[in-house]
Specification:
35 strands, mainly beta
């Protein structure tokens, strides 16, 4: 089967971080100016534990500041998502089931099961969503009420997709896979009940070629999903692979990689209201509370291409009157047509009275750029140099994952005694090494997460595929910074502690050749 780069490598970065005080880091410093400081709040004198999930190996592992592996979570399945640690040290993640239905056997398909692995390595809970109609994929998280929120594809036959308004040339034999969110209430060790769900299909429409005047519009375009949007004709047309939950607002952030943008949903609706246009705190039912394609009026006027690679909520927006804020990793086409990457902080247009603000056209107002830091790269045409994910730190900084290279970098940490900060941190994964045959696009191709195909059109009108290049790497999914004080593992036996003593990173697996096409 021909895997896609987004399937294996659309990676992300990091979350909160903290490790014991007084330890001297032995991580290598980055080869370049890579530390990102996007906040003004002082960074406390603590260093993060790093949760690493290799793309081509079953286990996830936790790395201490000195580089030693503090803990591992074993699994016989290859991960489809990076995983998250709960308060007990258990790891929740989506994994690739060995029994993916034939209806989902297409480039980009991954997932099939959600698994929770305890600190002791035992499987606490596992739930399979792998049928001809539905497949769980990429991401899952635990809500404050203990339920599990998961991304699920819903497959539609080609004729059904066209009947919904999808252009015939954008529908293949695999049909169309629309996004769903399922809130699962675990039951026993292998069961669950769907207590809430949201379906993109209920809120997708075919848009007219030209904007209609308000008096003739049957819906506001910004609140709906364009059934013909998406940069590639892949069946998973929206390409949602990441999500985050904002507990105080009870809102869900989705990164629609296939569209290069973000969606915000209302989780306060009932299951029935989520399928309609009314209900919930926002009063819009399952309609989009907000969406943004990563562009600005100035860039649109210049015809510049943009796309959002990753995004997370900024948690310092608490309090009435404060608008929601996103930390965003974004690619922008420059004046030289090259794609430049930056980590940015955007304030979303918000009113406590009306919610997210719209303009007369029925689109949502663009966000306001508050801060931006360029992501240096030795060569932006090299896939190994491209950032594939970020994580916002509670200390006001962000860290990046370069998933193709298996590399994660994060900012320096201020010392408690006021001495100069240490150098930027870097961890390179060595587990799950594999040899890849990857199509390398030109320097101005939009690659990874909302990107375009690396193929180009020749003078005779035929498509020319970019040449293949052999790469050896140990790629990773989204690494996360983890607060050591955020979880309390159960008591370990002396033997278990001995098994988890400091050691080198997990060894590499036997190298295999895999052909990968950049999206």
């Amino acid at each position: 089967m021909r895997a896609t780069a987004s399937q294996i490598f659309c990676v992300r970065s990091w979350r909160e971080g903290l490790v014991k005080h007084g330890r001297t880091s032995r991580f290598r410093s980055g080869f370049g100016v890579v530390a990102l400081f996007l906040g003004t709040a002082p960074v406390q004198a603590a260093e993060p534990l790093l949760l690493v999930t290799p793309s081509m190996q079953g286990e996830s592992y936790l790395v201490a500041p000195g580089g030693e592996v503090r803990h591992t979570w074993p699994s016989k399945f290859i991960p489809s998502g990076p995983g998250r640690i709960d308060k007990t040290g258990a790891l929740l993640r989506v994994e690739r089931d060995e029994r993916i239905p034939r209806s989902f056997m297409a480039p980009g398909a991954t997932g099939g099961r959600i698994t929770k692995i305890g600190w002791d390595g035992g499987e606490q809970w596992s739930f399979s969503v792998s049928t001809p109609k539905n497949l769980v994929h990429h991401d899952a998280l635990q809500l404050p009420n203990g339920n599990i929120l998961a991304l699920v594809w819903e497959r539609h036959e080609p004729d059904v997709a066209q009947g919904k308004g999808r252009d015939a040339n954008k529908v293949g034999k695999a049909g169309l896979w629309s996004e769903c969110l399922w809130e699962l209430q675990p039951q026993g060790k292998s069961g669950a009940q769907i207590v809430w769900e949201w379906k993109a299909w209920n809120h997708a429409r075919r848009f007219p070629e030209a904007p209609l005047p308000k008096s003739l519009r049957h819906f506001e375009p910004g609140e709906r999903i364009n059934i013909n949007d998406g940069r590639t004709p892949a069946p998973a047309w929206a390409g949602v692979s990441r999500m985050e939950y904002h507990a105080r607002r009870d809102q869900i952030l989705l990164v629609a990689s296939g569209m290069g943008g973000v969606w915000v949903l209302d989780h306060s609706t009932t299951k029935a209201e989520a399928a309609t246009d009314d209900g919930g705190k926002g009063g819009k039912g399952g309609r989009l509370l907000y969406q943004w394609d990563g562009s600005t009026p100035e860039l649109k006027a210049k015809g510049r291409k943009t796309f959002v690679v990753d995004a997370e909520w900024v948690r310092d927006d608490e309090g009435k009157g404060k608008p929601p804020v996103l930390e965003v990793l974004r690619g922008v086409q420059g004046d030289d047509d090259r794609i430049a990457y930056a980590v940015e902080r955007w304030e979303l247009p918000w009113s406590d009275a009306t919610g997210y603000t719209m303009v007369d056209s029925g689109e949502y107002a663009p966000p306001l750029l508050k801060q931006a830091t360029a992501v240096p790269a030795r060569d932006s045409s090299d896939l190994l140099e491209r950032p594939t994910a970020l994580t916002h730190s509670p200390h006001g900084a962000s860290a990046l994952t370069f998933g193709y290279a298996g590399l994660t970098r994060w900012p320096a940490v201020a010392a408690a005694d006021g001495s100069p900060t240490v150098k930027a941190r870097e961890h390179r994964n060595e587990a799950g090494k594999t040899t890849l045959r990857m199509s390398i696009p030109t320097h101005n191709a939009l690659v990874c997460c909302g990107g375009e195909s690396p193929s180009t059109t020749k003078s005779d009108g035929k498509k020319a595929v970019a040449p293949l290049k052999t790469l050896t790497s140990a790629p990773v999914l989204k690494s996360r910074l983890v607060l050591e004080t955020a979880f309390t593992p159960p008591h370990e036996s002396p033997k278990a502690k001995a098994d988890q003593s400091p050691q080198a990173a997990p060894g590499s697996t036997t190298a295999t050749a895999t052909t990968v096409s950049a999206p």
